[in-house]
Design goal:
The complex is a heterotrimer of chains A (86), B (300) and C (126).
Chain A (H helix, E strand, L loop, with lengths): L1 H20 L3 H21 L3 H37 L1
Helix pairs in contact in A: 1-2, 2-3
Chain B lengths: L2 H13 L33 H35 L13 H14 L4 H9 L1 H22 L9 H8 L2 H23 L8 H19 L2 H4 L4 H20 L1 H4 L22 H25 L3
Helix pairs in contact in B: 3-4, 4-5, 5-10, 5-12, 7-8, 8-12, 10-12
Chain C lengths: L1 H6 L1 H19 L3 H21 L25 H31 L4 H14 L1
């Protein structure tokens, strides 16, 4: 258990820093999803199963979907304006 | 990574090239309207030299000071962590008589096997009521901001491409029923095991989103349109408010004769926890689907 | 001192993640990155709160076989508080994203400095 816990905490730290340092928005979003999933497993290790289900469904599910949708809408607005320009 | 690439990466912190693979700000590439009307503020007024110098020196020193501030903050917080009670110690001040009372008497007073569910829906039900209202307020705020009456954030061509993808459709046909059944299971067993209203509601919301992505919005519009959404959320929140707030006016005794704690371990036990779980789960599921629908096409 | 920090490594990681999220919030001018930083700060503080409810050698507070001995279960209170916190976090993220989309529609840029200067210029024109 100790080894798994250390590995998960290290992965959490790496994912958190990688989200900050990545230059491409899409890449940082995918790393943020991985961060949410690892956090959900850490909740299980801390003996809080309700939080694990909620974090998995909300963090890696709905919140990430909303972030993807925002990127998509921004790209759509830009395409529309560039098409109008032509 | 070579030294020149590393230098280029360091310099790019100032340039701001963070958007997919293209430039961040699109103002320069957009057409400049004639006359510069007030609705199209594309042109930034030229700033004078003094201000330009100030801004440049600010931009150079700001990252350095931000990193120094964060390191100082890490230092102070680690000092505080050292003074906190040891992680996992059974004699920490957080484990006092309140916890003992909730764990020992929780099952016989509330009837819930899951003590966390008993705490958030029976002993501290008022906090959960506030949280449901926060979720509803957020949905209303997003609705106000992104409502588009013209109807259509999604180009027709893309909708056709998304719908005709056979892999997505056949996978969703198998997965969506399983997801929704699992969500209903988590809600109904909130007081017997891990789970509860929020978890189950989020899972059901995720299932509905997957269905909308794979099959389009038309099949769901028949059963989940704006009128139904409003009615469901209103009824659920009013039921929760009435079930727990009448005791402000009638004294502290709850409806214990009608909703008795019952025999622990059965589904229809634990008093009001099961109806409240269902109400909260419905609100959360509708809100999650509502978020997706408003972002995607501007209406529910 | 290093020994106590190593014993409570979960708290240390939570605190460092909080600072990482704060740095992201400060250093990036892109609104999207700021929202990601705020989310990381949220989950890090939830981690710190939950780690206060963990007791060595005891299981989750779900009563097994009717044994209600308090020596066998962890603390249920921090888990209940953090459940509320996670839901509030997703609500705030949704509102922030809606605002970002509207700002982009209006000013066609995600750079906070440019948005601020454009807004100030509009204010001056009025």
């Amino acid at each position: 258990m100790d080894a798994i816990e250390l590995m998960l905490l290290g992965l959490l730290l790496v994912c958190g820093i990688a989200t900050c340092l990545s230059r491409n928005l899409l890449v940082s979003l995918v790393i943020f999803m991985a961060y949410s999933v690892v956090m959900s497993i850490v909740w299980v290790l801390l003996q809080a199963p309700d939080l694990a289900i909620t974090e998995a469904a909300v963090g890696a599910g709905v919140s990430s979907v909303l972030l993807f949708l925002t990127l998509k809408k921004i790209r759509d607005i830009r395409k529309k304006v560039q098409d109008e320009k032509k | 990574m070579k030294k020149s690439e590393f230098r280029k990466w360091l310099k790019s912190w100032d340039a701001g090239e963070f958007d997919f693979t293209e430039a961040l700000s699109d103002r320069a590439s957009l057409p400049q309207p004639d006359g510069g009307s007030k609705d199209h503020p594309w042109k930034l007024e030229p700033i004078n030299r003094l201000e330009q110098g100030e801004i440049k020196s600010f931009r150079k020193s700001y990252p350095f000071f931000a990193v120094v501030l964060c390191c100082i903050m890490i230092g102070f917080l680690l000092l505080t962590v050292e003074h906190l009670p040891t992680f996992g110690a059974p004699d920490a001040p957080a484990h006092n008589e309140v916890m003992e009372r909730y764990v020992e008497k929780g099952m016989e007073e509330t009837g819930a096997v899951n003590v966390v569910a008993g705490v958030i829906l029976d002993y501290r039900a008022f906090d959960t009521l506030g949280e449901s209202h926060v979720l509803y307020t957020a949905a209303t705020a997003v609705f106000i901001l992104l409502l588009s009456l013209k109807g259509g954030g999604e180009p027709e061509r893309e909708r056709k491409i998304m719908q005709s993808d056979p892999l997505l459709k056949s996978t969703a046909r198998i997965i969506v029923p399983l997801v929704i059944v699992y969500g209903i299971y988590v809600i109904f067993n909130g007081h017997l095991g891990p789970g509860g209203g929020f978890s189950g509601g989020a899972v059901i919301g995720g299932g509905l989103i997957l269905y909308a992505i794979a099959f389009g919005f038309e099949p769901l519009d028949k059963i989940l349109n704006l009128k139904v959404y409003r009615m469901i959320v209103l009824c659920a929140l009013c039921f929760y408010s009435l079930a727990k707030c009448y005791s402000f006016f009638c004294g502290a005794n709850h409806l214990e004769t009608i909703f008795s704690p019952g025999k622990a371990g059965m589904i229809f036990s634990a008093g009001l926890i099961l109806p409240l779980n269902i109400a909260v789960g419905i609100v959360v599921a509708c809100t999650m689907y509502g978020f997706y629908s408003i972002f995607q096409r501007g209406r529910i | 001192m290093l020994q106590t920090l190593w014993d409570s490594r979960v708290n240390c990681i939570a605190v460092i993640l909080f600072a990482v999220g704060f740095a992201t919030l400060l250093l990036h001018r892109n609104l999207f990155k700021k929202i990601l930083g705020l989310n990381i700060m949220d989950t890090a503080s939830c981690l710190l709160l939950t780690s206060l409810g963990y007791i060595e050698g005891r299981t989750a507070p779900i009563i097994v076989d009717g044994v209600t001995d308090v020596q066998r279960y962890g603390n249920p209170l921090p888990a209940g508080l953090v459940l509320t916190g996670i839901v509030v976090s997703v609500s705030v993220t949704a509102v922030m994203l809606a605002l970002t989309v509207r700002l982009y529609e209006r000013y066609h840029t995600l750079d906070l400095d440019e948005i601020y200067m454009l807004a100030r210029q509009e204010e001056g024109e009025k």
